[in-house]
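Comment thread on ticket #2218

A.B. wrote:
> Attaching the input chain for the structure job we discussed in standup.
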Amino acid sequence: MRRNSHLGASRPLGLRATTAICLIGSGAAAVAQPAADAQLVSSAGAQVRLNPTGRDITLTAPLRDGAFILGELDFVLGTDDSVRINARRLLQILGPVLDPARFAELEAQLAGLAFVPASQVTALGYAISYDPETIGLIIDIPPSARTTREIRLQRFGDTLLGDIDEPAGFSGYVNFRTFTDYTWNGPEQGLRAPTALIDSAIRFQGIVLENEATLRLEGGNAETFVREGTRFVYDDRRRLARWTLGDLRPISRGFSSAPQLAGVSLVRLYSVLEPQRNVQPRGDRTFTLTRPSTVEAFINGQPVRRIRLDPGTYNVRDFPFVQGSNDVRLVIEDDAGGREEVGFSFFFDRTLLAPGLTEFGIFAGVSAPFTGGSRDYQFDEPVASGFFRRGFSQTFTGGVNFNVNQRGAVVGGEAVLATSIGTLGADVALSRVDNIGTGYAFNASLLRSFGGIGARGRSIAISAEHRSRNFANPSELFADNRFSWDLSATYSQAIGELQFISVTGQYSIGRGVVPDEKSARVTYGWRINQRINFTADAIYEDRALFGEDYGVRVGVTFRFGRRSSASAEYDSRVQRGRMSYQTSRGDGVGAWSASADVDVGEDDVGFDGGFNYTANRAEIGVNHSTVFDISGTQVDSQRTSLRFGTAIAFANGSIAVSRPIFDSFAMVRPHRTLDGATVYVDPRENTYTARSGIFGPAVEPNLSAYTERVITFDVPDAPIGYDLGQGNVRVSPPYRSGYLVVAGSDYSVTAVGTFLDRNGQPVSLLAGLATELDAPDRPPMTVFTNRSGRFGISGLRPGRWRIDMPTEPPSSIVIDVPADQQGVLRLGDVQLGDPQ
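C.D. wrote:
> Ran it. Output below, let me know if you need it in another format.
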C-alpha cells in the first residue's frame, strides 16, 4: 500500500505484496495499470488485444468470488488472449467452497491436467473471466454448487485467507475500570471515593499469568486492595485442551454445581478453544440464496444481527437464545426488493456433538471460597469436580459429571437423542452428603417442531424435573428441595408472516407444608412494519410467598433507523410504565451513545439518562438518575455516576496507553523511516479504531481468542510514494495475546522510470524480475512495463538491485537506491544492457 492523499482512501490493488506494479504518468499523479496494458477498447473504439506481446505471459493473481478473494492462482495469458489456469491450484482453492459432490465431479474432469483453459472450466458450469483492471480472475459459482456455510449470530467469524501473523513472544496489559458516584441529597450526600476494578494478563512463550483485583480509596474498615483471583493458563492447541493452575473458574453440567477452589484444571470446550468450529451435526436449519441478499435475524421480535450474504446455501446456528420460548425469524431481502421470511421456535438448547467429538473439564484442588472480601484457602479441604461429553452418533450425545469433597459427592449423567418425534434430553444424578443423607434427581424434556417453517411453523416443548428430599451438593449445609416436581410446557405458533403467539405453563408440586406453585403466560408478537414491533403478555402466577397475581404487559418498539430506537411498555401487575430512547453515532474513535428512560409508578417517577464516549485511549461514561414523588414536587433521590476505563499494554518492548482490552490486542507503531508520522488502525471514511501518538503506538483492543481478524492500517502523512506493503495483518490471536505490528519498513521506496532496449527503443509490455543483490535469497519481485516502457517498482530499500528483463536477447541493469532515499526514486530513462 503506497501513501494515500487522505485517510480511508486506500484500497487493495489485487496483487501480491512482492509484486511490483506498472505506473502510467509521472509524479504524484501516477496510477496503477495492468501489466499487459489490457485496455479492451482503444480511443477509436476498436477492441485492443489483451496480450499483444507475441509471447505467453505467466502471472499470479487473486481469484475473486464476488467481493471475496478465494486465493492466489497461477495462470497463463496466451498470445491468442486465452487464459490457461493451474488446475491443481484451482482445485485447492475451490475445495472449501464447493459442495463435496460437486467438487468430486470437477476434480474428475480436471484429473491429470496441468493447465486447463478457462473456457473448459466455464463449460463445466464455473464461469472464469480475466479482469484486466486488477490483472486477476473472477469466478461465478452457481448457488447449488456451493457448500453449506454457517451464519453465526453470536460470534461473527468470516473466512479469511492468507498467512497468519505470529503474536509477540512477550506481551501483556493492565485494565483499569474506575467509577465514582456523587449523591446530591440524603445522608450519603457528597462524592464517593473512586473504586478501580483491575484485571491484567501477561503472556510469555504461550503461558499466561492473569489476575483480578479491586482497589478502593474510600478508607474505613474496607481493605484498600483486594486480590480476587490469580492463575496460570496454558492452551495445548495440538490436543485442544486448556491447563489452568491457581484460582480456578470451574464449569458444571447437569445437577453438579461448580465449587470455588484453587488448584489445577484441564478443560476442552470448543466454544472457548475453537470458537469458529462447528461441533454440532450439520444440516438442521438451512436456506439457499440465489442472489446477493441482506438477512436480518430477530429473536422474540428483537433484532440480533444484520448481515450481507452472497448466493449459496447457509446453515443457521449459534443463536443467542434466552430461557423460555424463543421465536426466531429471518428476514431475507435481495437487491431487487424481493422478500422472504424463515421462522422457527426453540424452547431450550440440548446441544448435540458431532460423532467422535468430546468436551470435558476436570477441576481439582482445595476449597477457596471468596468470603469477607478475600480468598479463604482451606488447604485441609480437598475438592474435585468435572464433566465429560461425547458425540456417539449424528443423533446421540451422552456424558457424565461429578462434584466431590470430604463431606460427600454428586455423580450424574446426561443424554441428548434426536428422534423422529423430536429432541429428547435427560439428566440424572445421585448424591451422598454427610448430615444430609442420600438423594437423587432427574429431568427429562421433549422438543418437537412441525408444520414446516415460516407462516405455518409450530413447536411444542415439554419438561419435567424431580428432586428427592435429601438431594444436595457436597458444598451445601442442608438440602433445600421445597418442590418435589417442576413441570413446564410451551406451545409456539406462527400466525402468517408477521405475527406469532406462544403459550407457556409451569406447575411446581410442593413438599410437606410448602404449597404448590403455578404460572401461565401467553405471548403475542406482531411486526407491524419495518419500524414498529408490538408485543403483549398475559401473565398469571400463584407463588407461595406472594400469593396470586395476574396482569398484562404490553410494549411497542419503534426504530428510527439503524442506530436509534424508542420503546414504551406498561405492566399492570406492578402498575408501572416506562418510556425509553436509545441512539448512537459513529464507529471507532469518537463514537458515542446516549439513552434516556422515564419510569412512572404508583408512588414515584424516575428519570435515568446516560452518555458513553469512545476515545482513542479511554472509554468514558456518565449516568444520572433522579427519583421524584408522584406529584413531582419532591426529589426522593438523585445520583450521578462517572466511569472511566483505560489500559496499559506492552508487546515486545513497545508500550502504549489503550482503551480497556477485552482478551487480546494489536498495537501498530510507525517504522523509523516514517519520522513519527501518525498510524491509523482500520481506517474508513471519517473514522478509525485507534491512532498512534504521544502515548505510544495505536492499539486495537478488541481481539477475541482464536477468532480470525484482518487488521488494516494507513499512514496518510507518509512521504509521497512511500510503500507500506500490504497495509494489513491477519491474526488468529491465542488466549490473552498481544501483537506488535510495524507500519512501513526499509522496503518502502518506489522507483519509476522508462526501460529502453539496446537500440534506445521502449521495452514494451514485458514482465521482468527485480533482485536485491545484498539479499539474494529474498524472493525477487515482478516488474511490469506498459506499452511505452514505463515501469514502477514498489517495495525497494536502499542498496543495489538487478533488473532482469526477458527481451530478445535477455537484458538487465543494476540500479542503486541511495541510503537516504524516501518515497519515489525517479530514474528517468534506463537503458538495459547485457545480463549481469
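A.B. wrote:
> Thanks. Noting for the ticket: The first helix runs from residue 87 to 94.
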